[in-house]
Amino acid sequence: MKIQMSWLLVLTVLACSGNLLAQDLPAGESLYQSVCKNCHGPTAKGLASFPKLAGYTAEYLTERLEQYRAGEKLGPNTALMKPNATGLSDEDIANLAAYIATTFE
Predict the structure, then answer these.
(1) CA contacts within 13 A on the Cβ side of 28
(2) What is the pLDDT confidence band of residue 4, given thresholds at 50, 70 and 90?
(3) Which H or E run includes 98?
(4) What is the mean pLDDT of the chain?
(5) What number of H helices and E strands is found in the chain?
(6) For 75, phi and psi rounded to 5 degrees?
(7) What is the pLDDT of residues 41-97, one digit of tens each?
């Protein structure tokens, strides 16, 4: 049973890693540099009242961007984030999340 659980864990990690590597990091970088860095900073460590993005997983960032895009209120900066996330496609979100998660660890 332990061996089966170990293999399941290994396969899960590999599947997640492969998904992250399949994203278009240059496209994510382009989005980050043109929009996100204005508030979250050049190294995603946040500026003023804008939170840091560095250190979060791609899955977490994807979930948040999808929630903003759907119009969910997540906090005091929702009014600022919603217009930025509304025009993002699923592919844009995946690329952006992968870029942030792999670049700003």
Answers:
(1) 23
(2) low
(3) helix 90-103
(4) 86
(5) 6, 0
(6) 170, -170
(7) 999 999 999 999 999 999 999 999 999 999 999 999 999 999 999 999 999 999 999
pLDDT at 3: 59
Token duo for residue 102: 């792999």
- Is the whole-model pTM more than 0.90? no
Q: How far is CA 15 from CA 10, 21, 55, 56, 92, in A?
A: 9, 10, 20, 18, 20
Q: Which DSSP helix (H) or strand (E) runs through 81?
A: helix 78-86
Please state, as a whole number, how many other Cβ atoms lie within 10 Å of the Cβ of residue 53: 25
Rounded to an integer, what distance in angstroms lies between the CA atom of residue 19 and that of residue 17? Answer: 5
Taken in order 17, 19, 22, 27, the sign of the CA dihedral is negative
Query: Phi-psi region for residue 101, left (φ > 0), alpha (ψ -120 to 50) or beta?
Result: alpha
Neighbours of 40 (CB within 10 A): 20
